[in-house]
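Changelog-adjacent note: as of this version, every example in the card shows the full chain rather than a window. The one below runs 309 residues end to end.
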Amino acid sequence: MSSSDEPKRQSTISPDPNHGAQGSKPRAKSALQSGLYVTGVPIGNAKDITLRALDTLRQADAIAAEDTRVTARLLAMHGISAKLISYREENAARAIPTVLARLARGEAVALVTDAGTPHVSDPGASLVAAAAEAGHHVVAVPGPSALTAALSISGLQARHTLFAGFLPPAAGARRSELAALKSIDAALVFFEAPHRIAETLADMAAVLGERPAVICRELTKRFEEARRGALGELAALAASDGDLQRGEIVIVVGPGAAETAEAAEASLDDALRKALATMRVKDAADAVAGALGLPRRQVYARALELKGG
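Full-length structure tokens:
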């Protein structure tokens, strides 16, 4: 999911506690300190941009943007003009040296994605790593995030949260990844393409079980909505309701019911005994580990014990 989402002026952004970090260079008093400014922009509603982000975009010497056309529209809304550099996955190998050269000259460069905060689902991490390795100042200018927005309205309670991003598009790989996540005691947050929402929810129900979940669609936009229910119910709803197959989607899945250690061990042993009746130890361990989302080494060791017994 793309996360959605300026003339120089005399004001400056808030003082940064890392001022003077390695590679930073003092600049004119009214301008930003040299460095890479990782800047959050709106995920939908243009009014969600922060005052600090606007200051950063106004004062930056250049803005590295995932799609310069999208960023140009955002800047125009706020009366900002700026030098735009195209920086996306397809041209990262060429764009990164361009940005690093500007930083080496003592410039301030803002990094933005089309929506939200760079790094979540675009090549932002590559540029940040390159800038940091070269000793340049890297500054976070935080802003809207579909991840935290979805969590805030989910109503699902969990001690921990795991952001799993996009699942694989192929059904087999998707189910394998869900199996690996099954045993994690946390709320799980996923991004998903609208045309895959129904099949993804069906796979979640099959692998994770009937957990409570929320589909958050078009967050901060005109048709924002949240649909709540068990995974199986939501899968059936997504298959029959065309509205759920449109727009930007975040799925929040509640943690599974806690199992006692004794129940978990009994469940593993039962699954292994059934598998060992028709499979070799290695194949049985592979199948059960995938189905239960357990480490293969642990399952294989238990399978050997049961086979020996």
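Structural remarks: The first strand starts at residue 35 and ends at 39.
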